[in-house]
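Hello again,

I reread your note about wanting to compare the complex against the isolated chains. To keep things tidy I'm splitting this into two emails, and this first one only covers the full assembly. Below are the input lines as submitted, including protein chains and any nucleic acid or small-molecule components. They are followed by the predicted structure of everything together. The single-chain runs will come separately.
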Amino acid sequence: MIFNSIEFLLFAIGFFLLWPVMGKRNNSRWIFITAASFFFYGWWDWRFLFLIIGSGLIDYFCGLAITHHPNRKRLFFILSLVGNLSALAVFKYSGFIATVLQDFFLFFDYEVDLIAKIPKFALILPVGISFYTFQSLSYTIDVYRGRLKPTRNIFHFFAYLSMFPQLVAGPIIRAKDFLFQLTRYKVPNALEKWNAVKMIAFGLFQKMVIADNLSFFIDSSFEGKSPFDGTVYWWVVMVAFSFQIYADFSGYSLIARGLAKYMGYHFKMNFNHPYLSKSLREFWTRWHISLSSWFRDYVYIPLGGSRRGLWLGLLAMAITMLLSGLWHGPKYTFLVWAGIHVVFLAIERLTKWTRFFKKSSLLIPLIFTQALIAWIYFRAEDMTQGNEILAKLFAGLPTDLTFLDVYWDSLFFLFLALGIEVVIYFRKNYYRFAAWYNRSGWDVVIVTLALIGILFLRGEGKQFIYFQF
Amino acid sequence: MQVKYKIAITLLLTALLTLGLKIRLYPPLVNTELRTEFWLNKTYASADYSVVVGGDSRIYRGFSIDDMEGELTSDLNGLNLGYSSAGFSSSYIDFMANHLKLSGPRILVFGLSPHAFTDESISDELLNQYRSVKGFDRYKGLYLSRYLKHFAPYKISDLPSAWTGDYEGRVEETFYKNGWVASDQNREIDSVALDIYTNIFTKMDVNEIIIDRFMQQVDSLHKTGIAVFAFRPPTNAKMVALEDSLSAYREEEIANRFKSVGGVWIDLPVAEFRTYDGSHLDSKSARLLGKKIGQAIRQTLID
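Full-complex prediction:
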């Protein structure tokens, strides 16, 4: 079930009608959230519910065992790690591991077909597996570190793990931030309700109007169905993709946050206008914040972070980034995407070149360009295509500009997305503009326009890009 | 403005604006909900037809079933099972044959365009996309689209025309339950289609293996008592020249092979047809094509 569908609308109406009845008492609230979330997830493929249940049971019992058997807490922690990472390895990485091994053997002229030996069920990627596995893992890690007291109630745990707004594409919610929220029933006040409506409307607008309208132009370019080519053309394609993936993912996160807020809960911000960043380091504090902070807290800092000197710090950053690349998918292209970020981040940290610009707004397009170059490999079907597009961006090839006319129905929404970011830049940087905006009730007009846009200008419905992760 | 009234005011404003726009704007030229209903109706049509016509977009846009039926006896009905970029894979041919009635005349008609024999086309992406639609999505497409069509979105470039009602220069589509999309445009713009096909056929040729398999399957179908007909879908003269020079499609050879496995090849007077975009027939020509094929079937099987 996706947020921008009729079935979800019916589901949400049913859920929020029953919520005041079911939400008041702890047990009924947790059971209700769990049952509704399982229904929401099972709509795709109920068989994969067993994976969430299995993964959750391991972590629930390991969490209790870690507290009750402090002498063996390491054993239970490892059990939880192995359980979760094995599920990821089987369902997400078995094909990739087989390919890497095949390539390795082929290097020594030994040909094997390992992919054919993988059971078919393992080649199906359960929706959102990376999100809920990481969420579940954060629970046992925090219990192991003594930062979280495990819950005794299994429905309390599953309500946290399966909470439908964020189950399949985040934000990744930490148990220490959310378990205690689930112990109360809070009716949102008028301001919270209005903020929830704004988030849902803006999220749907980002997804259904911006991202979905851009997809035709981008898909036809990457699938070789477009008759156009050339340097300018591919720059426009890549700018469009940068905004498509942002609008798609940020849109999902906003809707998830809005739904949670309407239930009386708070999810932290997952995107904070990353393309307005003035350094790549800042970009990573604004893009997919829940994942970046997960990797920071559970990988980068345990590896020593920046406390162990410049070079070890760079190594920790490189390992963290590459793991983050692999988290996105079992493909070489994701590793290259992460590798490009490693290179740019290392250059930034070593040369501190952004200081020369003294926080000038000129940094915004420069940082955006770095992110854009990395996005090539994120979107490319394979390395060859990625390399070709990268070469075209800098080859100075002529472009037939009639593509602007042919793809105007898509490109209009790129200009709209750019325009929105410019307005947000002014709101963030010019106090008078922000004060005028906040005073004059513009938000009502803007939300109305967003809803009208969704009704009249939405693109062809596509699944959220991040579901595949 | 007090926060507690904002949701109500927003909803009221949205409702009023929606109503105003629905009254003021002409319906969108391309109704995505109607389109979904059309494809799902076609894909999940019952096995209840005497004549099933298959091929790519030159068939689903360029072949009028009603006009073919007009040339046949009243007990023969037809279904246009053309899909965008369809290729003659064995599963697609089986899919066509499975829509035939079990009794009475059983006729398959193939529109053999060069693209339908390429590696790209035989994945039958669109067909498989709709065949994989399951559960509530299928129900929604088949039974709710008729209501959802009132909320079909507009393309941004259509808004000025939707305001004035003047859709000149745009492709107008009318969807028929029997699988045909009547398509028209005031003036023929063929440069985009020619560019696209140049791009396709500089990358790939017609694949002889696909043709071999197609012929073998036609042979088997013919032996089971199914009458098989084929023709090259008419298109713009420049497109024919382009495909003949770039795609390695040899019409005469294909026609002879088709005849040798028991099929009936239908030659068409290409000059009588007109495309609206350099590739697909306009509705008038699509009606003419339906009529010509109906006549050929009648002459072969009935007269």
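For quick reference: Residues 3-24 of chain B form the longest helix (22 residues).

B.
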